[in-house]
Amino acid sequence: QVVESGGGLVQPGGSLRLSCVASGFTSDYYAIAWFRQAPGKEREGVSCIRNRSDSGYYADSVKGRFAMSRDLGNKTVYLQMSELKPEDTGVYHCAADAWVKCHLPIPSFDLWGQGIQVTVSS
């Protein structure tokens, strides 16, 4: 099971942090990724991290502005989003997979959360 939280409305230039909890894995070594989909657009892989030591993989559209981090203690992965732009608006999904290795473009994942709305608007 994958559950996201933390979305909402933010002004351009602002910041927001999304959280994702993935349960049901027998070890801590599984990949977590964030995807987003804006109305009328294809789903985009935003970022991916597998191990705690990974710096993560990021789509060019968010590189330098978004950062993933992982807290193994509470099995939570965070997506810190900064310098948000209106084009970052969309439904953000967290996904988890025990077998995927992160790379660009972000590959397909097995388990998906319901998604959470992020709106960047003044």
Describe this entry's structure for a reader.
The protein is mostly beta strands and 122 residues long. The protein contains no helices and 11 strands. The strands form 2 sheets. Strands 2, 4, 5, 6, 9, 10 and 11 form a 7-stranded mixed beta sheet that branches. β5 and β6 form a beta hairpin. It starts with a strand and ends with a strand.
Content-based structural category: mainly beta
- How would you describe the shape? globular
Helical content band: under 10%
Number of helices: 0
Mean pLDDT equals 91
Rg from C-alpha positions? Answer: 13 Å
Beta percentage is over 45%
Poorly predicted parts: none
Largest sheet: 7 strands, mixed
Q: Based on DSSP secondary structure assignment, what is the total number of beta strands?
A: 11
- Element string (H = helix, E = strand): EEEEEEEEEEE
Q: Kindly report how far apart the N and C termini lie.
A: 34 Å
List the helices and strands and how they pair.
Elements: E1 2-5, E2 8-10, E3 16-22, E4 31-37, E5 44-49, E6 57-58, E7 66-71, E8 76-81, E9 90-97, E10 111-112, E11 116-120
Parallel strand pairs: 2-11
Antiparallel strand pairs: 1-3, 3-8, 4-5, 4-9, 5-6, 7-8, 9-10, 9-11
What's this model, at a glance?
With about 120 residues, this protein is mainly β.
